[in-house]
Structure formats: C-alpha cells, structure tokens
Amino acid sequence: RGLTNMQLNHQKEIFDPAIASAGGRRLRIAHTVSFAFDMSWEELLWLVEGHEVHVCDEELRRDAEALVAYCDEHRVDVVNVTPTYAQLLIEEGLLDQDEAAGKHRPALVLLGGEAVSDTVWTRLRRTEGTYGYNLYGPTEYTINTLGGSTTDSPTPTVGMPIRNTRAYVLDAMLRPVPPGCPGELYIAGTGLARGYHDRSGLTAERFVADPFGAPGERMYRT
C-alpha cells in the first residue's frame, strides 16, 4: 500500500513534469543506488511506468568520473544520488552540456539520504534545462515522506508531505509550534510502518496516537 501511494504521488509530482520537460518521450534513468537501500525503489518505479532503467554495477556507481561519462554516452535523463555524491558528479561535469563534444545534461537530479547543501541546490536551480528534487523519508515510513523541487524554493528544503501523508512539527506537549520555531517532526499516513519487529516497547515509544487523525491512527516521532 505504501509503495502504491508513493507511485501515484511520483507520477504527478516527479514523473510527469520530467517527461514534459523532455518533450513527452520515454526517459533513461541511471540506477545508481545499492539494492540494499530503500531509495533504490525510486528508480524501479520509473521502470513500472515504462521508462528505460540502466542498472549501474558496484564499480561504476562508485566512480564519479566514470558515471558521468556513462550518463553522457547513454544520454541519461535522470540520476538519483545523495547530495554529497551529487556534488562529486557536478565537479566531474554532470551538469555541463556540449552536444558537439558528446556532453549530455540530465533533466532531473533526484536527491535523498542526507541534507542538501546550498552549493548543490543553487547549482541545480541555476542550471538551465535541469532541476533537482529532494526527497526525505525515515525507514519507519515507506521510502519517501516529504518532497520538494529546486523550482519551489531558493534554498534547500525537504518540501511538503507526499500524497496521503501528514507531517506535524510539535512541541513536547504535542502542540503545533508556530512557523520558525523549533519542534519535533511527526509523520502519519498511508506509508507508516506498523512498528518494530519484536520490540513492543520501542514501538510504543516511537509510534504514538495521532491527535489530529482519525480514531486509532498513529504517528511516528522522528
């Protein structure tokens, strides 16, 4: 259910805009994430949509220079990496474009797994024909929870809750804090896990009743 919800969200928020920017054609996506990482599902959802996914082996995906060369050679449209690795790829020329020299610029750079630096965000935002999309989500929620584009904000952001997802910033009394004030992020919705296997105490501590949802609904304390 959580994956289906994410798929439907990404169709509207990520896939359709990227396809439109490429003139409606089928896209080429580089699968650059270990299959042991839940983030790897994001590329597979493109495959479900009928796009072309290039699975990069361990050696290729760890070599920034070689990966950029591969993206140029195969005219890859979408890459999905951590912000730190995105910085390395940018330094190796990922966002450079010179068709005569065989340099191809991806239309979309998906980011996740850690905070995005101002440098990476600004470079993506200022690169014509390319944009970035940051996705945030803890293990306790099905892969992605929040998302935001470089076209939405001049500074790095985790964005807004995805489809059928709620996010609250609350104080110690579970009251919403005013904008700009610190608080703890709580997450609820379709993608929420049931809890931790054989760890009922930790489950009770982290998965608490959602006072803003329907009776019986829970939210996760991040």
Descriptive account of the structure:
- This is NRPS.
- The protein has two domains: 1-163, Rossmann fold; 167-221, Luciferase, domain 3 (Roll), CATH 2.30.38.
- It contains seven helices and eleven strands.
- It has helices spanning 2-21, 41-48, 58-61, 64-73, 83-91, 118-126, 200-206, and strands at residues 28-31, 52-55, 78-81, 108-112, 131-136, 146-149, 160-161, 165-170, 184-189, 207-209, 218-221.
- Helix 6 links the parallel strand 4 (108-112) and strand 5.
- The mean pLDDT is 94.
Can you give me a brief rundown of this structure?
With 222 residues, the chain is α/β, with parallel strands linked by helices.
Known CATH architecture of the largest domain: 3-Layer(aba) Sandwich
Q: Percent helix among the residues? A: 25-40%
CA gyration radius, whole angstroms: 19 Å
The SS-based structural class is alpha/beta
DSSP summary, beta strand count: 11
The fold-level CATH name of the largest domain is: Rossmann fold
Q: How many domains make up the coordinates? A: 2
- Measured by DSSP, the beta-strand proportion falls in 15-25%
User: What's the CATH class of the largest domain, please?
Assistant: Alpha Beta
Gap between N and C termini, in Å? 21 Å
Give the biggest beta sheet: 7 strands, mixed
Order of adjacent strands in the largest pleated sheet? 2-1-3-4-5-6-7
What pattern of helices and strands is seen along the backbone? HEHEHHEHEHEEEEEHEE
Organism: Streptomyces sp. AA59-4
Domain AMP-dependent synthetase/ligase: 25-197
InterPro entries: AMP-dep_synth/lig_dom, ANL_N_sf
GO cellular component, one term: cytosol
